[in-house]
Design a protein that fits this description.
Structural class: mainly beta
Helix content: under 10%
Mean pLDDT: 92
Strand content: 25-35%
């Protein structure tokens, strides 16, 4: 579900390689994960699978314990 715009490629988190979820989590629109894009890591951004942005990179979400905690306690896996 990638959309091209003048601000880059936009896509949903559940299809992005920069979204990290718990090791055993089922990936759904309501699954809470952690954005591990290098530029966004300092913000410890928690977001559900149906969230999205223009930093989207098609791929399989990463897995890491603590990804759904508030704030995320996981170490970025990529």
């Amino acid at each position: 579900m990638t959309h091209s715009s003048d601000k880059g490629d936009w896509g949903i988190c559940m299809e992005c390689q920069w979204w990290q979820v718990e090791p055993e989590a089922q990936i759904t629109h309501s699954t809470l994960g952690f954005c591990i894009d290098e530029d966004l890591q300092p913000y410890k951004l928690s977001i559900t699978g149906n969230g999205g942005c223009n930093r989207f990179a098609q791929g399989t979400p990463a897995r890491g314990s603590g990804s759904s905690q508030q704030p995320p306690a996981a170490t970025p896996a990529r």
